[in-house]
């Protein structure tokens, strides 16, 4: 029988309540002023700061698609689940208010809570760095052998001020935070020898396993009115720049020599370096535009900022994105980022 409400409910009493209690105990350390009521009732109650709007984003983290248990430690899976949502808030300049986690665990992972404990270690350490309370969620037995997680993040920004991808203008200059291609390089190394990364910790530079969402940069861009538009780099520069251009009805030029290569990609040959820079996904850096007269600091919140190109008027018969290198101009096309499987 595909669905049996009685046996579903009784299994919930035994397994799921125990898991929820385990999560609640660990999450209670993350109380925050915006959360009037957290885990334990039918709904959480949140109070956004006066004069602010709510921003909401939701992201799946599915075993086999976004992480693999034989490649990613549970802590890395937990960290990455939250980091994806936080990066979306960062891109809009928002401050996180609360996170909600829906989890479906296969029977084996519900019985032996080692994986769940590691997942919470990773998720809650990143949450505490950014003062994001875990204020609720849902827990269920997975219908397959796969772990499924979905994170919902609520954030706030001053009314009407959230950064958007649709507001870049011709003449603006194009910037990115941090370095590019590091996540793609670490993923390649991970695929080649997963065992080397088994004990990787969220300290040091692990752009794929433990990416650092750029919340402070996004909030500064908003607060100081530095950016005209912003997007996070989740799918790779060539894909996310195309999203920004399409949404803003503009075209863009990138200066290949200016693109900041992550040191982990430095051992790649030239061609692979360019691929990592342009098409490597999951760096979770910010890509933003600013007016030509706006002074952009070399670094914001200790994150280096690099000018990498400019926004131009879209022209008929001209590509939406061009790449300039050694005085030559190439057409740049989006190169979709393939997920793990
Ligand atoms: P309901 O049946 O009313 O949805 P649940 O038994 O699913 O209640 O959840 C009880 C409480 O535990 C709720 O406050 C819910 O938000 C919280 N909760 C359930 N699962 C999770 C989870 N994976 N992470 C965080 N909070 C959770
Ligand atoms: Mg529920």
What can you tell me about this protein's structure?
The structure is a single chain. The chain has 341 residues and is of the alpha+beta class. The chain has two domains: 5-158, 60s Ribosomal Protein L30, Chain: A (2-Layer Sandwich); 173-331, Phosphoribosyl-aminoimidazole Synthetase, Chain A, domain 2 (Alpha-Beta Complex), CATH 3.90.650.10. The protein contains eight helices and 14 strands. It has helices at 5-27, 74-91, 107-111, 114-129, 182-192, 215-223, 237-248, 270-279; strands at 35-37, 45-46, 52-62, 95-105, 134-141, 148-158, 173-177, 229-232, 251-255, 286-290, 299-300, 303-312, 321-325, 328-331. Strands 7, 8, 9, 10, 11, 12, 13 and 14 form an eight-stranded mixed β-sheet that branches. Strands 3-6-4-5 form a four-stranded mixed β-sheet. α2 packs parallel to α4 (114-129) and α2 (74-91) runs parallel beside α6 (215-223). It starts with a helix and ends in a 10-residue tail after the last strand. The relative contact order is 0.16. The model is unreliable at 336-341 (pLDDT under 50). Bound molecules: adenosine-5'-diphosphate (ADP) and magnesium ion (MG). The site of adenosine-5'-diphosphate (ADP) has 13 residues, from α1, β4 and β5. Adenosine-5'-diphosphate (ADP) is lined by residues 20, 23, 39-42, 101, 103, 134, 136-139.
Chain-wise SSE layout:
Blueprint: H1 5-27, E1 35-37, E2 45-46, E3 52-62, H2 74-91, E4 95-105, H3 107-111, H4 114-129, E5 134-141, E6 148-158, E7 173-177, H5 182-192, H6 215-223, E8 229-232, H7 237-248, E9 251-255, H8 270-279, E10 286-290, E11 299-300, E12 303-312, E13 321-325, E14 328-331
Parallel strand pairs: 4-5, 9-13
Antiparallel strand pairs: 1-2, 3-6, 4-6, 7-10, 7-12, 8-10, 9-12, 11-12, 13-14
Helix pairs in contact: 2-4, 2-6
The structure holds adenosine-5'-diphosphate (ADP) and magnesium ion.
